[in-house]
Amino acid sequence: MEYCLTVDNLSKQYRSYLALDSLTMRVPKGAIYGFIGKNGAGKTTLIRIICGLQPPTKGDYSLYGVPYNNRDICAARKRMGGIVETPALYGQMSACDNLKQQYIILGKPSFEGIEELLDLVGLKDVGKKTVKNFSLGMRQRLGIAIALAGDPDFIVLDEPINGLDPQGIVEMRELILKLNKERNITFLISSHILDELAKLATHYGFIDKGKILKEITAKELDEACKKRIAFKVDTQNGLCAALDETGLQYKLTSPLEGELYGEISISELSDILKSHGITLVKVSEKDESLEAYYINLLGGDSND
Ligand code: ADP
């Protein structure tokens, strides 16, 4: 397995406060790594360290296999782009001028590719509008365009979804998925809300009190938290036989209501019930188990 980032027993001490405590994690190449933890867990501290903004107190990390204290780390870090806390943008300038500024900083020979970048992040039509009049979602996407100007293959985003409206969340999610699929860009994305990353992460690292509690793939997480489908039917006659036929575990919460645990599509469930003369009156898929998994990991201690 190739990794963009490996972190080994990394600690960060702020005076008497231990913000990172022997943290170990692995971000595989090609992953969308959800870095999940409550506020104050240490996510930004780790991100600031790997972006080279502050040194660790103890321990090691490597980018593309290059240890952070090796002189080749600058070259490795050039393959990385990131937005830490909020994107650094010039409010009085347009999106295009912000990108031109970044091109100049990077020493690029021409402004070629700026239009394509604006198109890629959905900001092609904003024209001369200054960034101070952008929505938070537009700023975040411009931040990504600026990170992309350096042609990175690893992008680090600190709470990119925080404060976005539902439409902004969808646009951000689609952009990240597109960049991951089409440009094979690896992402490390921090969030304090597991649900927000559940639709896009391929890997998760759960951090609490400066330590990684668990690293798990999305597939393993899906298996660990069996899906729950709550249903209501019109008759109890033949209900158990029909539910047995699904091959899944179930629990009846009343004569006409119950819950099924596992993977089954609603149309498949409806067909099985129908073949037993039963009509599905109400059905809902519950994702709470994902949150429950997280709370269990934290030992039932979740204040967010
Ligand atoms: P997260 O990003 O998960 O919300 P942070 O990494 O920002 O968490 O913070 C982890 C802990 O370290 C917090 O308790 C925070 O108050 C503390 N911390 C962060 N930066 C500093 C600093 N420069 N000096 C002292 N304490 C800090």
Describe the structure.
This protein is of the alpha/beta class. The protein folds into 2 domains: about 5-215, 3-Layer(aba) Sandwich (Rossmann fold), CATH 3.40.50; about 225-285, Alpha-Beta Plaits (2-Layer Sandwich). It is built from 11 helices and 14 strands. The strands form 3 sheets. Strands 6-7-8-3-9-10 form a 6-stranded mixed β-sheet, sandwiched between helices. Strands 2-1-4-5 form a 4-stranded antiparallel β-sheet. Strands 12-13-11-14 form a 4-stranded antiparallel β-sheet, covered by helices on one side. Strand 12 (about 250-255) and strand 13 form a beta hairpin. The longest helix has 17 residues, at about 165-180. The model has no long low-confidence stretch (mean pLDDT about 90). The structure holds adenosine-5'-diphosphate (ADP). Adenosine-5'-diphosphate (ADP) binds near residues 14, 17, 41, 42 and 45.
Number of helices: 11
What is the level 1 CATH name of the largest domain? Alpha Beta
Looking across the biggest beta sheet, what order are the strands in?
Answer: 6-7-8-3-9-10
Which architecture name of the largest domain does CATH use?
3-Layer(aba) Sandwich
Question: Which residues sit in consecutive blocks of at least 5 with pLDDT less than 50?
Answer: none
Largest sheet: 6 strands, mixed
Q: How much strand content do the residues show? A: 25-35%
Sequence of secondary-structure elements: EEEHEEHEHHHEHEHEEHEHEEHEH
The strand count comes to 14
What is the straight-line distance between the termini? 34 Å
